[in-house]
């Protein structure tokens, strides 16, 4: 197979996985998802000679870099809008969610959000993307042992955040042998 054929196969097979990966990390900004995914596959096209036989973890690594660029760009735009004083809150359009607007499992997302970006990423790669430790190592650009240690430490810190947020719930789970 040629590099072009390898790229076409990777695109067909992994487009939706990469799209989901990006969408989960741009929660609340769906308009940017297509843009970032297009950038991922543009990079993959330019580097199609470098595509490994199992390209998904490599594509996730490219997506990670493209997301970092998108987040930096979003931050720059947000700061510019804030300086210009043209944001929604300045025009009285700030809307607060009601008390029953909380989505199921929101506390897990809240606990995850309290972790460092590095901890969040390693946990998401294993939980959301269902990658094994070897694949996580490829995405993160580190060795298998380092990826395994990062995952172990991130899980420990997530557990500590959950314990801090709802100590009665976790104590009850431990009593029943679930924790």
TrEMBL record:
Positions of the RNA polymerase sigma factor 70 region 4 type domain: 107-158
Keywords: Sigma factor, Transcription, Transcription regulation
Signal sequence region: none
SUPFAM superfamilies: Sigma2 domain of RNA polymerase sigma factors, Sigma3 and sigma4 domains of RNA polymerase sigma factors
Protein name as annotated: Sigma-70 family RNA polymerase sigma factor
PANTHER family reported in the protein's UniProt record: RNA POLYMERASE ECF-TYPE SIGMA FACTO, RNA POLYMERASE SIGMA FACTOR RFAY-RELATED
NCBIfam families (alphabetical): sigma70-ECF (TIGR02937)
Family: Belongs to the sigma-70 factor family. ECF subfamily.
InterPro entries, A to Z: RNA_pol_sigma-70-like (IPR039425), RNA_pol_sigma-70_dom (IPR014284), RNA_pol_sigma70_r2 (IPR007627), RNA_pol_sigma70_r4_t2 (IPR013249), RNA_pol_sigma_r2 (IPR013325), RNA_pol_sigma_r3/r4-like (IPR013324), WH-like_DNA-bd_sf (IPR036388)
């Amino acid at each position: 197979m040629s590099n072009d054929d390898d790229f076409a196969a990777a695109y067909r097979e992994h487009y939706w996985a990469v799209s989901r990966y990006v969408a989960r990390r741009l929660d609340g900004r769906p308009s940017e998802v297509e843009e970032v995914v297009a950038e991922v596959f543009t990079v993959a096209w330019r580097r199609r000679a470098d595509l490994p036989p199992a390209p998904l973890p490599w594509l996730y690594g490219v997506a990670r870099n493209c997301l970092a660029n998108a987040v930096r760009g979003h931050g720059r735009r947000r700061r510019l809008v804030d300086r210009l004083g043209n944001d929604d809150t300045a025009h009285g359009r700030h809307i607060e969610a009601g008390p029953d607007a909380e989505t199921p499992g929101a506390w897990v997302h809240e606990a995850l959000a309290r972790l460092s970006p590095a901890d969040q990423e390693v946990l998401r790669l294993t939980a959301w993307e269902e990658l094994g430790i070897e694949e996580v190592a490829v995405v993160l650009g580190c060795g298998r042992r380092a990826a395994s240690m990062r995952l172990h430490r991130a899980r420990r810190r997530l557990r500590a955040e959950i314990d801090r947020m709802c100590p009665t719930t976790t104590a009850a789970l431990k009593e029943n042998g679930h924790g």
